[in-house]
Structure formats: C-alpha cells, structure tokens
C-alpha cells in the first residue's frame, strides 16, 4: 500500500528523488504521466507523481499540482513531499502553495540544497558550484531561466507569501536553536520557512529541529529527500542486479547543459558512437530526422552503444535557437520540437534488441517514454549521486532498464557508469 507520495515537476527530478527511497530498500514507483493510475504493486510503498509542469505558467502549474494533490488525498495518502528543482527552475513556489492549499499543513519547510551535487543555500540565496544562480548557465536555460537566486523574493513573486530564512548561524547552533527560531517566527504569523544548507549534516539538524511540527509540508530536492526516507537499517533492494538483458544501450541526450556536453565527449571517446540530430537541421530540412533514425538503427544493429544527441556544444544550441527564431519559434518551442522528434526516433526502434536506455533532460525523458507507451518506472538503485537506475513497466519497452539524468547533473564519466550499471558490470 502506498503510504508516502512525492510530487515532482519533471521526470528526471521525480526519478532522482525516488532513488533516495529505493536505495534504502523501500519499494518506489514513478508515474510517467500523472493521469495514469497510481501503481499499486505489492512492493510499492512510495509513489512519485510526475506532473510535467516545470514549463507551465505559475497559474497553470498551481492548477495541475493542486489536481495531483487532491487525487493523492482522495487515495488517502497522508504524507506528501514536494520535490522542487535543485536550481529553482519552474514555478516551485506556486506548486508548493498548491499542495499546501490542499493539505493545510501547520508549516511549510523548504530546503532545495543538494550539497553532494554542488547546490547550497546561504542567507536565503541559492548557489550552484559556488556561484549565485544568476551567474550560471541556469540563467540562460532556454525554457526556464532563473535570474534571481534569492529564494524569498521568488516565493513572494510567485505566491505573494512571506517566507523566513533560518540562517546557517542558527542551524550550526543545533536542533534546539532551529526549533526556537521556527516557533518565534510562527508567533509573528510566518508559516513558510527556507533553510540554509551547505553540508549534508545540516539536513539532519533541520530534521531534528522541526520534530515538533509533524504535519509540516516538506519541499526540496533529492538532497533533503535522502533525510526523509525510511531508516537506513532497511535492507537494500536486490533488484538492481537481476533481469539483465543483452544488447547495446541507447543514450538520448536532449539537454543543452555544458555538463552534459562534457559527459558526451567522455562516453564517445570510450564507449559509444555519436549520432547527431542538430536542431538547426531538424527545423530546416524536411525528413532529416528520418535519416538520423536510420543511422541509429544501423549502429545498434552493428552492436554499438549509441549516443543520440541534439547538440554537442553551445554553438550547436545557438544555431538551433537562431534557426527557430527565423521560423518564428521561441527557445521553448525549439526545445519542445526537438524532444518530440527524439521520441519519434526512439519509437521506430526495436526495444527488445536493447539492454537499456540512458535519458538526459526531463523533456527528453518524458517524450521518449510516453512515445513508447511506458506507464511507470520501478526505481531500484543509484548509479551516481542523483542518477537512478530503474525498470520500465508498460509499452514496447516493458522490462527495459533505464537511467535518467538531469542535464546539469553528474561527473564527466557518469554516462560510462550508467552503461556499466545497465550491463551489470558495476
């Protein structure tokens, strides 16, 4: 029976949070489409709902997430974790408000940091690899740019609500200091709280310092989720090593992140053949994607692991955006069209000949999986920090192993680690 639910705004984020539960042996399933029935497999105690709402307006995101929360409440799910992007993309505050308006928690606790992945919060400002978000590539994301790193301002802008910052100086004093500060702010009528976090131990202090608010709504990234999971004493799942399939692996990279480009260079140097699907050509040459699909089929038939990518440099991204602009398309429109085409190419492949897939970029992952009819992912293990391995259920890829990765996540060799995990070599 499902006892705990996570609501996430995109598929890769849903999966990187799901694995925090799965790696502790807690049966966890991720819905690919929120309108599908909640998985009720015997082993599933946690369900992660993908609302696919990151790219919506604040009003539409609120509406969609509120619908999901009402459905879970009707299913008698009592505990909700609101997954938010660790770089604050999307309308995270509007979505938290939607869940809060349904569940009416006594407080809302927000901690988007993920120190192991280079995301930290100090003084209410959010940092990526040591820089405020407005000075990183996240500020130039084609669909959901973030140009302000001060979390209280973003909350005020999206919801009109006031949030207090529980500073690092308070957290370092210990759990009692955290509890006193929260109680003091509540006496002033504040019910939303942002917690500074710079290291994993801060999460534990925050969790212990807020025990007096058992019905609070928690919101954060996979980093915080790791401290909300079942106890570490639970045995690890043994699913990750079972049911391996022979055959090559297909990597589909729709992310425009520079980090993904670096990871592509590493895997093509050692383990995979690159087949490019340049956005500029997709937008200007009819039938180009079909030629690309034929190349993918041929390379897979020859036994190659294949990396299918829409860009391998920022120059490729710029060219695609420029081609879209000439056709009257926004950067958001270009990203959407490319994700759709990637799904079409994968739909033409014989899934039974693959041992697995690696999907990077939330839009890419959801389009590919919906196109092949997948219903949900049973998450079973963590390949690297925030990068899960799962098994597909439903559609032509039923039983196929899949690794998903947010574009800006992972070390240079993470695609190689994913290939090894799928092939059972890790």
Automatic annotation (TrEMBL):
Name the record gives this protein: Uncharacterized conserved protein YgbK, DUF1537 family
Keywords, ordered alphabetically: ATP-binding, Carbohydrate metabolism, Kinase, Nucleotide-binding, Transferase
Residue ranges annotated as coiled coil are: none
Q: Keyword ATP-binding on this protein?
A: yes
Q: Which family does the entry's similarity section mention?
A: Belongs to the four-carbon acid sugar kinase family.
Residue ranges annotated for the Four-carbon acid sugar kinase nucleotide binding domain, each copy included: 250-415
* One function term, GO molecular function aspect: ATP binding
| Pfam family for this entry, one | NBD_C
């Amino acid at each position: 029976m499902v006892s705990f639910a996570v609501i996430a705004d995109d598929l890769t984020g849903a999966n990187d949070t799901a694995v925090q539960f799965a790696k502790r042996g807690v049966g966890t399933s991720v819905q690919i489409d929120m309108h599908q029935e909640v998985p009720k497999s015997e082993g599933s105690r946690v369900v992660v709902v993908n609302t696919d709402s990151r790219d919506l307006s604040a009003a539409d995101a609120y509406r969609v997430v509120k619908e999901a929360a009402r459905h879970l409440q009707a299913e008698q799910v009592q505990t909700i974790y609101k997954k938010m992007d660790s770089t604050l993309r999307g309308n995270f505050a509007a979505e938290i408000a939607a869940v809060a308006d349904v569940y009416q928690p006594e407080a809302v606790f927000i901690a988007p940091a993920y120190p192991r992945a280079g995301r930290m919060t100090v003084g209410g400002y959010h940092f990526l690899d040591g820089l405020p978000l407005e000075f990183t590539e996240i500020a130039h994301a084609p669909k959901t740019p973030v140009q302000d790193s001060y979390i209280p301002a973003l909350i005020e802008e999206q919801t009109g609500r006031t949030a207090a910052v529980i500073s690092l100086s308070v957290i370092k004093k210990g759990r009692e200091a955290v509890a006193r500060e929260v109680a003091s702010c509540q006496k002033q009528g504040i019910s939303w709280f942002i917690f500074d976090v710079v290291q994993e131990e801060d999460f534990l202090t925050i969790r212990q310092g807020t025990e007096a608010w058992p019905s609070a709504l928690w919101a954060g990234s996979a980093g915080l989720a790791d401290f909300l999971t079942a106890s570490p004493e639970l045995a690890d799942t043994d699913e990750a090593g079972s049911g391996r399939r022979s055959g090559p692996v297909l990597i589909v990279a729709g992310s425009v992140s520079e980090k993904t480009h670096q990871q592509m260079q590493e895997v093509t140097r050692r383990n995979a053949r690159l087949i490019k699907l340049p956005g500029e050509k997709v937008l200007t040459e009819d039938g180009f994607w079909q030629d690309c699909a034929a190349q993918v089929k041929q390379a897979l038939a020859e036994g190659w692991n294949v990396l299918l990518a829409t860009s391998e440099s920022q120059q490729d991204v710029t060219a695609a955006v420029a081609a879209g602009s000439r056709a009257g398309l926004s950067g958001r429109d270009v990203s959407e069209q490319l994700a759709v085409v990637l799904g079409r190419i994968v739909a033409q492949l014989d899934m039974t000949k693959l041992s697995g897939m690696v999907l990077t970029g939330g839009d890419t992952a959801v389009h590919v999986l919906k196109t092949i009819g997948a219903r949900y992912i049973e998450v079973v293990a963590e390949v690297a920090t925030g990068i899960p391995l799962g098994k597909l259920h439903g559609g032509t890829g039923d039983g196929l192993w899949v690794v998903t990765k947010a574009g800006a996540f992972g070390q240079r060799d993470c695609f190689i680690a994913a290939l090894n995990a799928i092939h059972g070599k890790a």
